[in-house]
Amino acid sequence: MKHRIKKLVEHLRTKPEKERQHIALVATTVVGVVLVFVWIAVFTAQSKEPKQKKEVFGENIVQPFELLKKNFNTTVDTVSQGVSGFTEDLKSITQETSTETMGTETASTEALETTQVVE
To answer: Does the pLDDT value for residue 38 go beyond 70?
Structure first.
């Protein structure tokens, strides 16, 4: 078996780069599809088991998709809170900046008027 694999690898090394890349892509796709089918088969078989809560050391086993859903929802909530907090901070900074700018413009206008009165 080892000899066959070694011979196959040596044969592939003699092929042009483009053809080797194509072979690698096809092989990777086939392996990925097989893994997805195995994964689906395992979850399908698990879902056909009776719907009883299993106990391990007195704790309920959490199903993988339930845990994924819970983590996804938590992540979405956290990001939403962060974004809303960021937008509120941005609005307050914008308001502060515009207030400071107006104050600077008012001070500049008053200084200019004072200078004109002195002249």
So the answer is: yes
